[in-house]
Amino acid sequence: MTAIRTAVVADPLGLHARPAAELVAQARAYESDLVLASGEKTGNCKSLLAVLKLGIVGGTEVTVTATGPDEAVAVEVLASFLELVHGEGTS
């Protein structure tokens, strides 16, 4: 099976280096294959370079897809993470 969830990136600065690294660290805790999609672009959630190459800005709708034994939990955790403001864009 596959689990899919969409989220809107809440941080006005988007998915830049620090939150992208946090996302990747969280993704690596799961056994499932995890993919982040933005428009026509997709990237492996467990690869920092792949996530950064997506160029995701604040307010972008993204899709998290997981396939594997812990897919349901993984998509919920990662999508929820993307829906949070991570501090730097709140001044």
UniProtKB/TrEMBL annotation:
<dbReference type="InterPro" id="IPR050399">
    <property type="entry name" value="HPr"/>
</dbReference>
<protein>
    <recommendedName>
        <fullName>Phosphocarrier protein HPr</fullName>
    </recommendedName>
</protein>
<dbReference type="InterPro" id="IPR000032">
    <property type="entry name" value="HPr-like"/>
</dbReference>
<keyword id="KW-0963">Cytoplasm</keyword>
<dbReference type="InterPro" id="IPR002114">
    <property type="entry name" value="PTS_HPr_Ser_P_site"/>
</dbReference>
<keyword id="KW-0813">Transport</keyword>
<dbReference type="InterPro" id="IPR001020">
    <property type="entry name" value="PTS_HPr_His_P_site"/>
</dbReference>
<dbReference type="Pfam" id="PF00381">
    <property type="entry name" value="PTS-HPr"/>
</dbReference>
<keyword id="KW-0762">Sugar transport</keyword>
<dbReference type="InterPro" id="IPR035895">
    <property type="entry name" value="HPr-like_sf"/>
</dbReference>
<comment type="function">
    <text>General (non sugar-specific) component of the phosphoenolpyruvate-dependent sugar phosphotransferase system (sugar PTS). This major carbohydrate active-transport system catalyzes the phosphorylation of incoming sugar substrates concomitantly with their translocation across the cell membrane. The phosphoryl group from phosphoenolpyruvate (PEP) is transferred to the phosphoryl carrier protein HPr by enzyme I. Phospho-HPr then transfers it to the PTS EIIA domain.</text>
</comment>
<feature type="domain" description="HPr">
    <location>
        <begin position="2"/>
        <end position="89"/>
    </location>
</feature>
<keyword id="KW-0598">Phosphotransferase system</keyword>
